[in-house]
């Protein structure tokens, strides 16, 4: 079947033909068949340089030979036992040695599960009900995270989800990222009832937005003052900027951390972990329940171990410099074309916003021209460049991207931006 035929069939199977909303766009989403290194190929065999990397996890590029070999070995020796395995211990040790605040952890099957359990744990540990999240912060697709959330929630203009009971949304307070006063106001009113503040330390689901003016340090201070827990959602940032968490780069220790994506090397995974005294509250040592048939499964942990063992010896300057060179080139192109554009780069993450004003939070992000971004996406596609299909996602660089990819990408952006200039 060709793309049109496959998509037609998919629409009879899945709502709008997809299994996650951000994968949908008109007229027919690209249907990928395989990928090698920095390139992915659709069912018609068109080649694209990939800057989505499956929304972040594929930091080594696609079909890395060593990772594939380790997964195949695991397939040949059994893929699920429903009991503790050596792989889990190995992966857990690698992560604990690399991320300062994670003393104990639990593996889950996704980032969504990780944040859901971390929030329940924070509530169980503190005996408090309220949580604080940032407007535009994305923590997966469970009830407590789908309040003023980022990612597909903004792309499709759904600030919260139907089906989340009012009683649930009333327990979620929303602050503004990079605006500590908005958080202080919430704490002044509700401080002794707030179980935790959860935030992506670098926002990655409204495009990419970095922290400013000691915002994260102030979050740490205010949560300590009120004996609330601080949760860093490092599902994107964990092992993305360096062989550690973003928390280790900036020297701030959250009480709990969530991870996912890269630590599973492209296989389904999530993790929540942190202080021992908090983690011991988890069942069976404690009374906060958390479980999963596939949690810590041999395949995901094999892929994770292989990926992290390779990453340990990588020089992250390579991907970080690539992103900064691409960012600079995009600044030059858009300034020559007199286009109102903001280019945010954080290490190996990058996004271009069609906006006159700097994008520093949710409100400035949503004032961007998302339709223009969609036109850019379509033009780039024609030129063999695949970026995430929304203004409110982030472009990622992998260790498989090459100088020649960078040159081709800059050429393609030049042509694409010229063609969408009004
Ligand atoms: C910061 C963040 N947290 C949580 C999630 C949820 O992870 P998953 O899609 O694996 O459920 C995502 C991405 O989806 C994310 O970007
Ligand atoms: N923005 C999300 C994750 O970071 C996109 C992943 C998805 O929902 O498919």
UniProtKB/TrEMBL annotation:
The modification N6-(pyridoxal phosphate)lysine is found at residue 261. Its cofactor is pyridoxal 5'-phosphate. CDD domains: OAT_like. One of its GO terms (molecular function) is transaminase activity. Keywords: Aminotransferase, Cytoplasm, Isomerase, Porphyrin biosynthesis, Pyridoxal phosphate, Transferase. Its EC number is 5.4.3.8. Pfam families: Aminotran_3. It catalyses: (S)-4-amino-5-oxopentanoate = 5-aminolevulinate. It is an enzyme of class 5 (isomerase). One of its GO terms (biological process) is protoporphyrinogen IX biosynthetic process. Its main location: cytoplasm. One of its GO terms (cellular component) is cytoplasm. NCBIfam families: hemL, PRK00062.1. Belongs to the class-III pyridoxal-phosphate-dependent aminotransferase family. HemL subfamily. This is Glutamate-1-semialdehyde 2,1-aminomutase. It comes from Acidiplasma cupricumulans. The gene is hemL.
């Amino acid at each position: 079947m060709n793309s049109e035929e496959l998509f037609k069939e998919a629409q009879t199977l899945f709502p709008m033909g997809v299994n996650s909303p951000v994968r949908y766009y008109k007229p027919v989403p690209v249907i990928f068949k395989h990928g090698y290194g920095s390139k992915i190929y659709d069912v018609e065999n068109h080649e694209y340089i990939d800057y989505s990397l499956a929304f972040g996890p594929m930091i080594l590029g696609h079909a890395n030979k060593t990772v594939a070999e380790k997964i195949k070995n695991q397939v040949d020796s059994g893929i699920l036992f429903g009991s503790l395995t050596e792989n889990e211990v190995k992966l857990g040790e690698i992560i604990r040695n690399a991320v300062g605040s994670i003393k104990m952890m639990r593996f889950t099957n996704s980032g969504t599960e990780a944040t859901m359990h971390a929030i329940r744990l924070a509530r169980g540990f503190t005996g408090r009900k309220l949580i604080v999240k940032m407007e535009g912060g994305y923590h997966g697709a469970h009830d407590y995270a789908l309040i003023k959330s980022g990612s597909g929630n903004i792309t499709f203009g759904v600030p919260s989800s139907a089906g989340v009971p009012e009683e649930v949304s009333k327990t979620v307070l929303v602050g503004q990222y990079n605006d500590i006063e908005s958080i202080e106001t919430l704490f002044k009113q509700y401080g002794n009832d707030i179980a935790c503040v959860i935030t992506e330390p670098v926002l990655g689901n409204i495009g990419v937005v970095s922290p400013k003016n000691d915002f994260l340090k102030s979050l740490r201070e205010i949560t300590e003052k009120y004996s609330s827990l601080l949760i860093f959602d490092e599902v994107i940032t964990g092992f993305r900027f360096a062989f550690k968490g973003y928390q280790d780069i900036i020297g701030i220790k959250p009480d709990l951390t969530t991870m996912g994506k890269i630590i599973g090397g492209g296989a389904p995974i999530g993790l929540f972990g942190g202080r021992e005294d908090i983690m011991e509250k988890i069942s069976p040592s404690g009374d906060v329940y958390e479980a999963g048939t596939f949690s810590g499964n041999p395949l995901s942990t094999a892929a994770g171990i292989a990926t992290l063992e390779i990453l340990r010896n990588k020089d992250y300057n390579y991907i970080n410099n690539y992103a900064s060179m691409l960012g600079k080139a995009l600044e030059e192109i858009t300034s020559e074309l007199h286009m109102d554009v903001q280019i945010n780069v954080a290490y190996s993450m990058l996004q271009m916003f069609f906006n006159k004003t700097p994008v520093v939070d949710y409100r400035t992000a949503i004032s961007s021209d998302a339709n223009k971004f969609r036109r850019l996406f379509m033009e780039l596609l024609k030129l063999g460049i695949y970026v995430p299909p929304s203004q409110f996602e982030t472009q990622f660089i992998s260790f498989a991207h090459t100088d020649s990819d960078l040159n081709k990408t800059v050429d393609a952006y030049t042509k694409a931006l010229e063609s969408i200039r009004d």
